[in-house]
Specification:
heterodimer, A: alpha/beta, Glutaredoxin, 2 domains, 6-stranded mixed sheet, globular, B: alpha+beta, 7-stranded mixed sheet, two-stranded antiparallel ribbon, 32% helix
């Protein structure tokens, strides 16, 4: 019971003062590096690096018997980091079922080796992490979902029957309830 | 019984949350903010030089490039030089930049007024960098992220919203920009045309309130 109250309170704290449907983002971290980036530059990357067409084809439009939970996050986004353990826990709990969690990082690609990979190692993330390296957000944000304003965290849960999009943070229970309503 | 208790707790939390959100956004009838064609509310905010700034201080302007931005968001930092360049390009044409920091420094310690002054000095900002101390302007406008741009055109009825969204199509790297959404919109207004791309989207750091 205490845990439930705790989760409720943290939800409350994060929701304070944010406009309407926003439960969103926080950020840190200064970054200046600005180099030209091509996908071929990441051939030796420890995690997959996709542009949007590849992400859409290989992750967002799959038609099989698996339910996919796709979370958009970044290492500079505080509420994203807060909810990552819930996605990990969910993936573990449903590991015997046809449920797959994929974490799509929106970190700048020049921070792959300095921020993203160290973060994955530090928090021992078990779910698959993909870096989305595609600068033209105005083109791909509406393709993920027409309702998306562009803030993170944002999550899609979908399978071959249904699809839901969320521009908000989750508690573990909220996340599991959404999954249960879809599988 | 236990389920019922859990449900009750969640309902209470939800109600409290909605209550707080309603209270802090100040104007519940306008919680979605400005749309294209709306008249933007006037501002009266403190600049980093200590002076108060409002649109009325610019009698000769044709409009304003209002940019919600902040000190440390990676997307805001990546846009700083572009914002300075926009002011240099469009202030002489009657569309000065007005930057507003919407973040509450209690939640985002990097966004205090003093650090805003430091940022403006370090980067040599040529435009006002205003502190939304009442935490109300961002909500009236509907700014959800930094950077978030509102292009206003002065009309007889007020400052009309003509464009909302991103500066251009590549926040991360100015050298790779193909479409300058905001600049294109200003040039269309200057030519007396309708803005062709009125709204765009970008990933951004949410406003901390």
């Amino acid at each position: 019971m205490k845990i439930i109250i705790g989760l409720g309170l943290s939800l409350l704290l994060f929701s304070c003062g944010e406009t309407k449907k926003e439960h969103v983002v926080a950020e840190e971290i200064r970054t200046n590096a600005q180099q030209h980036t091509e996908l071929e530059d990441f051939d030796d990357s420890p995690i997959p690096v996709y542009d949007f067409p590849k992400l859409e084809k290989e992750l967002l439009q799959l038609r099989n018997d698996t339910t996919y939970i796709v979370n958009f996050w970044a290492t500079w986004c505080k509420p994203c980091i807060k909810e990552l353990p819930y996605f990990e826990e969910l993936a573990h709990k449903y590991s015997d079922e046809k449920v797959k969690v994929v974490l799509v990082s929106l970190d700048f690609p020049e921070n792959l080796h300095t921020k993203v990979v160290p973060f994955i190692e530090k928090y021992k993330l078990q779910s698959e992490v993909i870096l989305l390296a595609d600068d033209d957000a105005n083109t791909w944000i509406p393709k993920v979902d027409t309702k998306w304003e562009g803030s993170i965290p944002a999550t899609i849960i979908y399978n071959n029957k249904t699809r839901s999009f969320y521009e908000r943070s989750f508690t573990y229970d909220e996340l599991e309830n959404e999954l249960k309503s879809i599988i | 019984m236990k389920k019922r208790q859990i449900l009750l707790i969640f309902s209470l939390v939800l109600m409290a949350t909605l209550g707080l959100v309603g209270f802090s956004s100040g104007n519940s009838t306008n919680s979605e903010g400005l749309n294209i064609g709306d008249m933007a509310a006037d501002i009266n905010l403190k600049n980093v030089n200590g002076e108060m700034v409002s649109y009325e201080d610019y009698p000769n302007a044709n409009g304003f490039i209002v940019i919600f931005t902040c000190n440390t968001c990676p997307y805001a930092v990546a846009s700083e030089d572009r914002i300075i360049a926009l002011d240099a390009e469009f202030k002489p044409k009657g569309y000065p930049v007005i930057a507003i920091n919407p973040n509450n420094p209690a939640l985002q310690p990097d966004d205090t007024f003093e650090l805003m002054q430091k940022k403006a000095k370090q980067k040599g900002f040529t435009f006002p960098y205003l502190y939304d101390s009442s935490n109300t302007v961002y909500a009236k406008y509907g700014a959800k992220k930094t950077p978030h741009v509102y292009l206003l055109q002065k009309t007889s009825e007020g400052n009309m919203v003509k464009y909302i969204g991103a500066i251009d199509d590549n926040v991360r790297n100015a050298d790779l920009v193909k479409e300058r959404f905001l600049a294109n919109a200003v040039y269309e207004l200057l030519e007396g045309k309708e803005v062709s791309v009125k709204e765009t989207k970008a990933i951004g750091c949410s406003v901390k309130q």
